[in-house]
Amino acid sequence: MMTSFWKAIGDFFTFTFEFIPLIGNKINYLYILVIFLFLVTWVTLMFGHRKKGEEHKSSL
Fold first, then answer.
1. Distances (CA, A) of 39 to 27, 43, 44, 45
2. What is the Cβ-side half-sphere exposure of residue 1, based on CA atoms within 13 angstroms?
3. Distance CA 60, CA 40 (A)
4. How would you write the pLDDT of the chain (60 residues) with one tens digit per residue?
5. How far apart are CA 54 and CA 48, in angstroms?
6. Dihedrals phi, psi of 36, to nearest 5 degrees
7. What's the Cα-to-Cα distance from 47 to each of 27, 32, 35, 54, rounded to whole Å?
8. DSSP H stretches of helix in 18-56
9. Comparing C-alpha atoms, which of 17, 37, 41, 18 is closest to residue 29?
10. Helix, coil or strand: residue 59
């Protein structure tokens, strides 16, 4: 029972790894884009807090 379970998991990963060459660097570019967008959003929010004088305001 457990042997067939682990073999099924291995077959699944073998199947998914066949698609990696098709994707290539596109997934890396997607990650770079997402991280860049989060960084821009975070910096924009930080400048908004500084403008309102909430830079080091205590939340208590």
1. 18, 6, 8, 10
2. 0
3. 28
4. 889 999 999 999 999 888 888 888 998 999 999 999 999 999 999 998 888 887 776 665
5. 9
6. -60, -45
7. 30, 22, 18, 10
8. 20-23, 26-51
9. 37
10. coil
Query: CB of 32 within 8 A of CB of 26?
Result: no
| pLDDT score for 43 | 94
DSSP assignment letter at 1: -
Domain boundaries, the chain: 23-54
What's the Cα-to-Cα distance from 38 to each of 2, 7, 31, 46, 56, rounded to whole Å? Answer: 42, 39, 11, 12, 22
* Token code pair at residue 12: 């699944």
**pTM of this prediction?**
0.57
Give CA–CA dist 50/5, Å, rounded. 55
